[in-house]
Amino acid sequence: MALENTAIQEKLVATFAEDVFNFQQERDIFSFEINAHKNTAIILFLKNDPDLRFHFLTDLCGIHYPENPVEKQFAVVYLLHNWYENKRIKIKTFINGENPEIKTLSNIFLSSNWMERETYDFYGFNFIGHPQLKRILNMDEMTSFPMRKEFPLEDGGRTDKDDRFFGRTIDNC
Questions:
Q1: Which of 13, 19, 30, 169 makes the best surface tag, with the fewest CB within 10 Å?
Q2: Would you say 31 and 38 are in contact if contact means Cβ atoms under 8 Å apart?
Q3: What tens digit of pLDDT does each residue of 75-89 get?
Q4: Could you state, in order of their start, the residue ranges of all structural domains in the chain?
């Protein structure tokens, strides 16, 4: 029997109550939100439950919402896959913008190690309990996190570009 969205939702709500919410079908993927302080418990439940069996972490990434209130300024998104039923789910959790931290999944999914390091490298999220949380792609000396929206898209000190060729100036002629 195919794994239905309602079965996933009912099991999660029965176990975690108000810590799982905003269930919806987004195109071909079932998605919901969770409270950040319960991320490891919920994901471990999804992995170990004999009916759900979400044994594969497809992706983990960050999102920056600078227009949101500070307590919901960043989000972590997890994509899990049940290979037996070929069912995918998306889990989103919001974290604080002043102190963006969340518990690591590296003890649940070994593959999350590099994904969390990449997310730390580009967004500055602190994955509590991560065995080696350090930059993975950017230079260690870098003090900013380039995927945050406050990071400038271009180097303001460049002199080799003429803005007129990129439609950045208004000609008053």
A1: 169
A2: no
A3: 999 999 999 999 999
A4: 5-151
Mean pLDDT in residue range 97-108: 96
> Does 173 score more than 50 pLDDT?
no
Cα-flanking dihedrals φ and ψ of residue 115, to 5°?
Answer: -65, -40
Residues of the chain with pLDDT > 90, as a percent, come to: 75
Angle between helix 5-16 and helix 39-48 axes, rounded to 10 deg:
130
Buried/exposed code over 81-112 (b: 16+ C-beta within 10 A; e: otherwise):
bbeeeebbbbbebbbebeebebbbbbebbeeb
Q: What is the CATH number of domain 5-151?
A: 3.30.460.80
